[in-house]
Design brief:
Helix content is 33%, strand content 25%. It is α+β, with helices and mostly antiparallel strands. The termini are far apart.
Length: 208
C-alpha cells in the first residue's frame, strides 16, 4: 500500500514537472504584444470552478480571496498565439498559461501578493541582465548580496527579487534544485519567464 502511494505521488510530481518544462518552450514575453491576441471570451461558470481550484492548488494563499480576485461575471479568457491563454479581469492580465501547464502570475499581481511565490534574490550585478530578459546564472544567486532558499526543487516557479529592491523584478522557473544551484554554482539556475517592462508588462489593458 505504501509503495503504491509513493508511486502515485511520484507520478503526480513527474506530470507536474513535465507540464512546467513544456510551458517553457514557448512562453517568453520579451516581444509579446496585443497583435498576438486571437480571441477573448467570458469563461463559463463550470470552467471557472476548475480554474479556481487549480489556482488554489498552485497558490494556496489565494484561497480566501479567489472569488474577489476572479469575480464570476468579469473573468475573461484571452487566447493568444503559441497556445497561450491569459486570465483577465477588467482587461487586466492576472495569469498566463500555455496549454495545460501551470499558471504564471503577472508581475503586477505578484507585487500585490508577494508571498504567493517563493523568493530567490540576485545580486546587484545581475539586475541589469534580469531586466533584459536574461536567464539567471547560478553565481548571480550564490554571491554576496544574493539569497537562495535551500529547499526548492527543480521546476519551481519563483519570484526573482533583486538586492536593494522591495518588489520582484521577474518571475522564473528553477532549472535545478536550489541545493544543486549552491553546490554546482555554474550554468543557468533559473529560467526567466516574465520580467519588468517586457511585452506582457507593457500591456495594461487587453480589451480591444
Amino acid at each position: 500500500m505504501l509503495r503504491s502511494l509513493v508511486g502515485s505521488e511520484m507520478c503526480i510530481r513527474d506530470r507536474y514537472q513535465r507540464r512546467v518544462r513544456g510551458s517553457l518552450r514557448a512562453i517568453m514575453f520579451k516581444k509579446f504584444n496585443k497583435s498576438e491576441i486571437t480571441g477573448q471570451s467570458q469563461i463559463k461558470s463550470s470552467a471557472q470552478r476548475g480554474i479556481k481550484s487549480s489556482l488554489i492548488d498552485q497558490y494556496p494563499m489565494l484561497e480566501d480571496i479567489i472569488d474577489e480576485l476572479l469575480p464570476k461575471k468579469e473573468l475573461v479568457q484571452v487566447k493568444c498565439q503559441g497556445h497561450i491563454n491569459l486570465l483577465t479581469v477588467g482587461g487586466e492580465i492576472l495569469f498566463a498559461q500555455q496549454r495545460d501547464g501551470p499558471h504564471f502570475p503577472h508581475l503586477r499581481l505578484l507585487h500585490k501578493y508577494p508571498e504567493m511565490l517563493p523568493h530567490v534574490r540576485v545580486d546587484r550585478g545581475a539586475i541589469k541582465h534580469v531586466l533584459q530578459g536574461a536567464n539567471i546564472m547560478c553565481r548571480g544567486l550564490t554571491s554576496a548580496g544574493a539569497d537562495l532558499p535551500v529547499d526548492l526543487p527543480e521546476d519551481t516557479v519563483v519570484a526573482i527579487m533583486a538586492e536593494g529592491k522591495d518588489h520582484a523584478c521577474a518571475i522564473g522557473v528553477t532549472k535545478m534544485s536550489t541545493a544543486d544551484i549552491q553546490e554546482i554554482n555554474a550554468d543557468t539556475g533559473v529560467t526567466s519567464i516574465h520580467y519588468l517592462n517586457d511585452g506582457l508588462w507593457q500591456i495594461t489593458d487587453v480589451r480591444p
